[in-house]
Design goal:
This protein has one domain: Arc Repressor Mutant, subunit A (Orthogonal Bundle). It is 50% helix and 8% strand. The protein has three helices and two strands, in the order αβαβα. Helix 1 packs across helix 3.
């Protein structure tokens, strides 16, 4: 099976939006490779630290909400 990493990255970014707290922080309990790709894309700040959460960039925050709404909400 070939995994579409772009789709995985989009789903994880959307789920990071679901766990937002303290403004732009989200729990970082996802696959490290995915978190590294999101960091390389400029969606999150460097996930390698002792904190249990990661900070979304302004672009990451906007894109995360957009993806969350597109993937996980029902139309009105």
């Amino acid at each position: 099976m070939e995994i579409d990493e772009e789709k995985v990255d989009d789903a994880v970014l959307a789920l990071l939006w679901l766990t937002l707290h303290d403004g732009r922080r989200a729990w970082k309990s996802f696959d490290w490779d995915t978190m590294d790709r999101l960091h390389a894309k400029g969606m999150i700040e460097d996930p390698v630290n002792r904190s249990k959460s990661v900070v979304l960039t302004e672009e990451g925050l906007r894109r995360a909400e957009e993806l969350f709404r597109g993937l996980f909400t029902r139309p009105p």
